[in-house]
């Protein structure tokens, strides 16, 4: 029997030697281009340091088979290898993203750096509900471990730049309510209402009659509890409902962090639905992530592939130009656009820091694999916003074809208007 295994052992050692040689050549070439605080530990105990600096990140390659991930180090391949436990990575999440991106940028050929793929998913109601369930119904406790106390899972608004997360999220909600010029007792629809923070605030400060819709069962249950606890059941209704099934007319409509799930080719229909639900003199605000690629492509270096596989199934990002065109096709006139990319880079960085600080609890709640997914996702998102791979826009619009005299003269009302009700 020993003789039968000899050729296979020889083949294994030969493959290991070849991969070790390729890794040595690859690392030597990279060290000539840049210095990284990175150490790679191979299966045989060999260490490869990429600078004289102490390593901030250590990648442990436990087997010969795992070495191939390093030789083509895209965010998708290394991210997947880490999530699936094929490699081990030690270090802070944001350091991990910085260093892996540097490896990809200096290793991949030009055609491998950028993804121009648009998936064009069908986006059925059942498929969208399943995707929402996968991402949002991990558990409310999971999200509470790294979000602010109101569980606002969207870009915060830092008026000064140094606010804590809870303050910045409250500022974001108030900024939105000023942008839509919400008036007392108006009817407000919030599409993708999350855990209810925006509709609760609108009801408390403006006595607005609010409807919030979500496809997440756990968000729905907790949002209803929060409405009851606030004594606002007479003003706020939370529904487990697809936006396409909403009927009626609303003076104001907000959609915050939701339209990324709609699909690029479905955006004109999505905005047409908003226009149908909007009163003649109403205002709608769409707050969402966009691609920085004019062709609506995914994030570079495999980042988009990782997000699609592990984080947001069937999620699609459109370029801001495509979004504005789709809004006009949906019979909406855009009259204000604000780029909050810097704000989302900071928001994700704070979420990432909170996530790292609560690592033990999060692993207990969601398991090692899901912990690693969100660890990479949050830190990677902060990096992507910082690098202009993706962006975040708040877009204010109304029904198209109205007289110019009904538009505001300036944006001053968004910043100086005093909101009714308690601060």
TrEMBL record:
Checking Gene3D superfamilies in the record gives: Vaccinia Virus protein VP39 (3.40.50.150)
Molecular-function GO terms, alphabetical? methyltransferase activity
A Pfam family matched by this chain, by name? DUF7884
Q: Where is the DUF7884 domain?
A: 26-109
| Entry's Gene Ontology BP terms | lipid biosynthetic process; methylation
Q: Does the keyword S-adenosyl-L-methionine apply?
A: yes
UniProt keyword S-adenosyl-L-methionine present: yes
Q: Which UniProt keywords apply?
A: Lipid metabolism, Methyltransferase, S-adenosyl-L-methionine, Transferase
Q: Which family does it belong to?
A: Belongs to the CFA/CMAS family.
Q: Could you identify this protein by its name?
A: Methyltransferase domain-containing protein
The organism's lineage is: Bacteria, Pseudomonadati, Pseudomonadota, Betaproteobacteria, Burkholderiales
